[in-house]
Every structure is written in C-alpha cells, then in structure tokens.
C-alpha cells in the first residue's frame, strides 16, 4: 500500500493513506497471462485426421445406388432389403456392391429409434473389422412426421 507524505491538513510530517489503485502489477500479470495463452494455445490442438467432403461438390455421376444397412429394434439387420447377420455381413456387402473390393465405398447405416446402442455399435465394429471405414449415418427429422 502506498503512503502519501505531506498531506493538506496536517503538518509536514503527517502521513495520509493513498487510495489510488496501482494498476502496474495488474497490467504485468495480464500481459504474462496473455503470452502464456498465446504460446500454449497452438499446442492444445490435437491433430486428428478427418475425411471431410470437398468444399466444391463433385458433379460426377453416381456409379450405383447407395447401399445402406437398416437395423430394426427386434435385432434384425438388412442390407437394402436382404436379411443378414453380423457373421455374413462382409460377403453380403460384397454381393450388394457387386465388386471384388468394395472397401472404399461408403456404407450408409440407418437404425430404428429403439435399437439398442450396443447392437448398433456391434454392427459398426464389425464393419471396421471387415475393413469398411467409410461409414455414414442416415438421420431423419421426425418432428416433421406426424
């Protein structure tokens, strides 16, 4: 705390209290914190490779109809309209794509609202185990449906 020497009312040796705020330490601390955040902010970003679509849409014609996996709340799994299981998912997908290596194709998944999360994740994990890494989810706006 600062002191004021030689106050107005008192004599030459009267010591008064200084009520002015000293902002220099405050500014010093703020500048140090600013420098710390500026240095540490680039280090906090994590490099995760994300396969984002291009900013300009591709106008090339679609090679085939999209293949989607449907999951019902009773545990049944369908590829388009054909019933399948987790064990036969890979050969059924190859048959549906009609290619020797369809692993670079995008697979769409849609599931009923009441499908258990564990069942859904078992299908996604099976797709990754089989080498299908381009998986997309189909969502529908159910608020518009009456």
Short synopsis of the structure:
By secondary structure, this protein is α/β, with parallel strands linked by helices. It is built from three helices and seven strands; from the N terminus they run E-E-H-E-E-E-H-E-H-E.
Structural features, described:
α3 (117-129) links the parallel β6 and β7. Helices cover 29% and strands 17% of the residues. The N and C termini lie far apart (71 Å). The protein has 146 residues and is an alpha/beta fold.
Question: What percentage of amino acids are in beta strands?
Answer: 15-25%
Structural class: alpha/beta
Spatial sequence of strands, sheet with the most strands: 5-4-3-6-7
Q: What is the CA-atom radius of gyration, in angstroms?
A: 33 Å
Gap between N and C termini, in Å? 71 Å
Bin the helical content. 25-40%
Largest sheet: 5 strands, mixed
Uncertain regions spanning at least 5 consecutive residues: none
Order of helices and strands: EEHEEEHEHE
Quantity of strands, as a count: 7
Mean pLDDT: 79
| SS field, number of helical segments | 3
Show the helix and strand layout.
Elements lengths: L2 E3 L9 E3 L6 H21 L22 E5 L5 E3 L2 E3 L4 H9 L9 E5 L5 H13 L5 E3 L9
Parallel strand pairs: 3-6, 6-7
Antiparallel strand pairs: 1-2, 3-4, 4-5
Keywords:
single chain; alpha/beta; 29% helix; five-stranded mixed β-sheet; two-stranded antiparallel ribbon; 146 residues
């Amino acid at each position: 705390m600062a002191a004021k020497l030689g106050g107005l009312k008192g004599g030459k040796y009267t010591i008064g209290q200084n009520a002015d705020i000293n902002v220099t330490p405050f500014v010093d601390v703020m500048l140090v914190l600013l420098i710390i955040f500026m240095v540490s902010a680039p280090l906090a970003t994590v490099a995760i490779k994300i396969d984002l679509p291009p900013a300009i849409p591709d106008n090339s014609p679609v090679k085939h109809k999209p293949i989607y996996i449907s999951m019902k709340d009773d545990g049944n799994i369908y590829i388009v309209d054909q019933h399948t299981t987790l064990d036969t998912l890979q050969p059924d997908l190859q048959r549906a794509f009609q290619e020797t290596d369809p692993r670079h194709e995008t697979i769409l998944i849609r599931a009923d609202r009441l499908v258990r999360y564990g069942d859904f994740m078992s299908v996604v994990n099976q797709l990754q185990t089989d080498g299908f890494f381009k998986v997309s989810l189909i969502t529908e706006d159910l608020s518009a449906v009456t």
